[in-house]
């Protein structure tokens, strides 16, 4: 396997895998991959691979008290391989904390899209397994979980338009000569150099490690409603606005892929 430095550089963005700044990696989505689950999905963004199963409904536990609406519960696990990719020196307790943090973010991103009032006192379990962590792992997991919920037949608000998709993007300085890169929201190119940040959609794990700042956004595209954001590093107001516009456009592109996967499964079933 070649190292990132051995891969072709994009003439536009300088990305090591040859993509433009606003391009996704190759996306593959398949539903109905777990026979015992109510709904399931397997999603690949090149080396980022996630499998999700939705189980239930089951009756809520007494500790939750009476609930007039249903609820989602989410559990995420990293495979041993994915855990080594994300944090090679992490101890077991650190891995557990990371898994809980990612699961909480997925739950926040998904809850708004499901008509839980249709399922009083019921609980649906969303089980997420990150098989490989190749970058943008949370965003890919949110996308996979949303497809699995739709595959489970849970009533979504305006099905097909309020499925949540997640994208990640980073602010990164390229270690090369000045380039002309088309930035989101602009019809023309803008100049950049090794000391100026670029916005890169769907970063690989190598790109994420070199990032100056990062942001993950999930949204229900049909209603233009953001359900969750997660940022790190320093962003200017203008820079973050530009990045959010890039992320929203990326969610729109993913929506097409997600709907095609769900339609294909419906036709073949």
Q: Would you give an account of this structure?
A:
This protein has 269 residues and is of the alpha+beta class. Helix content is 29%, strand content 31%. The chain is built from five helices and eleven strands. A five-stranded mixed beta sheet has the order 1-2-3-5-4. The protein has a four-stranded antiparallel beta sheet with strand order 9-6-10-11. Strand 7 and strand 8 (189-192) form a beta hairpin. The longest helix is centred in the last third of the chain and has 32 residues, at 237-268. It is globular and about 50 Å long. The two termini are 38 Å apart. 40% of the residues are buried. Mean pLDDT is 79; it is low at 1-11, 158-162 and 174-196.
Q: What's the number of helices? A: 5
Largest sheet: 5 strands, mixed
- Secondary structure category: alpha+beta
User: What does the overall shape look like?
Assistant: globular
Estimate the strand proportion.
25-35%
Determine the mean pLDDT: 79
Low-confidence stretches: 1-11, 158-162, 174-196
- Give helix and strand order, one letter per element, not per position: EEEEHHEHEEEEHEEH
**Rounded radius of gyration (Å):** 19 Å
Strand line-up of the largest beta sheet: 1-2-3-5-4
Helix content: 25-40%
Give the N-to-C terminal Cα separation. 38 Å
**Could you give the count of β-strands?**
11
Summarize the structure.
By secondary structure, the chain is of the alpha+beta class.
Helix-strand layout with pairing:
Blueprint: E1 27-31, E2 39-45, E3 48-59, E4 71-78, H1 80-86, H2 92-111, E5 122-132, H3 137-151, E6 164-173, E7 179-182, E8 189-192, E9 197-201, H4 205-209, E10 213-220, E11 225-233, H5 237-268
Parallel strand pairs: 4-5
Antiparallel strand pairs: 1-2, 2-3, 3-5, 6-9, 6-10, 7-8, 10-11
Helix pairs in contact: 2-3
């Amino acid at each position: 396997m070649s190292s990132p430095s051995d891969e072709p550089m994009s003439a536009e963005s300088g990305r090591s895998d040859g993509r433009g700044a606003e391009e996704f990696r190759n996306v593959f989505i398949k539903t109905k991959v777990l026979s015992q689950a109510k709904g399931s999905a397997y999603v690949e963004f090149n080396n980022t691979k996630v499998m999700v199963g939705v189980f239930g409904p089951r009756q809520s536990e007494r500790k939750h008290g009476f609930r007039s609406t249903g609820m989602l519960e989410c559990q995420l696990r990293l495979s041993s391989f994915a855990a080594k990719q994300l944090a090679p020196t992490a101890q077991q307790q650190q891995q557990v904390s990371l898994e809980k943090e990612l699961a909480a973010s997925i739950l926040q991103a998904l809850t708004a899209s499901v008509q839980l009032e249709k399922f009083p006192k019921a609980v649906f379990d969303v089980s997420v397994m990150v098989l490989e962590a190749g970058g943008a792992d949370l965003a890919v997991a949110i996308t996979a979980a949303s497809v699995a919920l739709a595959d489970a037949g849970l009533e979504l608000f305006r099905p097909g338009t309020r499925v949540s998709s997640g994208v990640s993007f980073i602010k990164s300085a390229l270690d090369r000569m000045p380039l002309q890169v088309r930035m989101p929201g602009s019809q023309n190119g803008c100049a950049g150099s090794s000391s100026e940040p670029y916005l890169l959609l769907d970063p690989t794990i190598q790109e994420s490690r070199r990032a100056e700042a990062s942001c993950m956004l999930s949204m229900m595209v049909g209603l233009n409603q953001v359900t969750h954001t997660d940022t790190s590093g320093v962003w200017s107001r203008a820079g973050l606005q530009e990045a959010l516009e890039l992320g929203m456009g990326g969610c729109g592109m993913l929506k097409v892929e997600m709907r095609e996967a769900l339609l294909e499964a419906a036709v073949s079933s």
